[in-house]
Task: inverse folding
């Protein structure tokens, strides 16, 4: 059974990789970088994006594709902070976004008028690691309410991410989470990870994140 | 592509359901109930099991099968609290336990000397919902650090669970989580859910959970 599962998965993934290459080519042609936000459910992807849209929406043209298993709750939350279109993808049970969904969503986004695309993936530390969406980089969020050993328990995700954003730092006094231990685990599986620490709720540590987003976004052409 | 994915998945799942029926028959023959613990990564499955082994390990013969994508960290943590065998299953990238793994793990468990089997699934709110392991019931853990709308965003898991255990209640003063709102969302997708509230860290609310576990476990035959 194990072998059959793997054969099947490889066929489906090969098709996904072809579509991801098409996404990547389309974004490159338009000069739009894309950040794929991944994490456990409830680690704070949507709130970080809400803060980012509030802070940077006026100076950068940010587009968002947000995926959920059911509901458009996250899309509704995000739409309150931007007058731009927020693309909602409901996966109807599937545990990750795939490149086919991103390719479809791009049809509704004016890439020429976009400086950066955020993709908010389904909350899941396993499956989204293996599905290339054509993004420039994966950003993995890691809440301090989880265990410090998440990077070694879910290594693929942390290996494939370019950036690790610790979230909910305001809860650090109330949880038995040692940040230096978590950083060591993360560096163990991916020494090249760029690491940021944030609290979206307390609005702490967000400036380095905003700086990173600004540096990623293409400079807006003078009006 | 969507159709092909579904065809494939249905074939693999049909095979899983056959194996789950074998697990269920074997457990029924031995009179051993099995609870399948599912949740987001970091919601506290392992700590709840540690507390349960400490509190009930002397009066009930508890067996544990614990799954992780990589590492045996959880199995090592649990083994400190019991002199019984803790079965570790490393899924090597797969996002859920399957019935084939449970069937293999049962080979090493003396079911005649077991009153209750815990299965600690991979931390994931999506995929484990669809994989029957032959359990008596799914127990879904839901941390108050997550969003209240998790039940409507991941409805299958909450629909298929018999019990919902809120975790990390000690963090409630520090997070914008409204317990009654989360309960309402949970009841909306599954009115029959039994709901418990716990804090494993602060050792709060555990007696009702222990009572539930005691009631599930078969009564031990008099020595």
Result:
């Amino acid at each position: 059974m194990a072998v059959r599962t793997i054969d099947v998965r490889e066929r489906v993934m090969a098709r996904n990789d072809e579509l991801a290459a098409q996404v990547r080519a389309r974004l490159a042609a338009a000069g739009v970088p894309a950040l794929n936000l991944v994490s456990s459910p409830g680690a704070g992807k949507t709130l970080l994006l809400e803060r980012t849209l509030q802070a940077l929406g006026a100076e950068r043209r940010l587009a968002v594709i947000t995926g959920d298993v059911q509901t458009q709750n996250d899309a509704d939350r995000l739409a309150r902070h931007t007058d731009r279109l927020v693309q909602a993808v409901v996966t109807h049970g599937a545990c990750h976004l795939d490149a086919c969904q991103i390719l479809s969503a791009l049809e509704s986004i004016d890439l020429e008028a976009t400086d950066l695309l955020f993709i908010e993936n389904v909350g899941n530390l396993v499956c989204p690691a293996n599905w290339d969406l054509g993004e420039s980089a994966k950003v993995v969020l890691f809440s301090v309410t989880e265990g410090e050993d998440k990077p070694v328990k879910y290594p693929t995700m942390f290996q494939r991410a370019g950036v690790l954003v610790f979230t909910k730092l305001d809860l650090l006094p109330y949880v038995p989470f040692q940040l230096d231990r978590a950083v060591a685990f993360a560096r163990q599986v991916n020494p090249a990870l760029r690491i940021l620490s944030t609290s979206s709720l307390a609005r702490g540590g967000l400036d380095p994140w905003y700086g990173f987003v600004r540096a990623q976004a293409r400079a807006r052409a003078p009006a």
Notes: Chain B touches chain A through 45 residues (CB under 8 Å). The domain at 33-216 of chain B is CATH 3.40.50.300 (Rossmann fold).
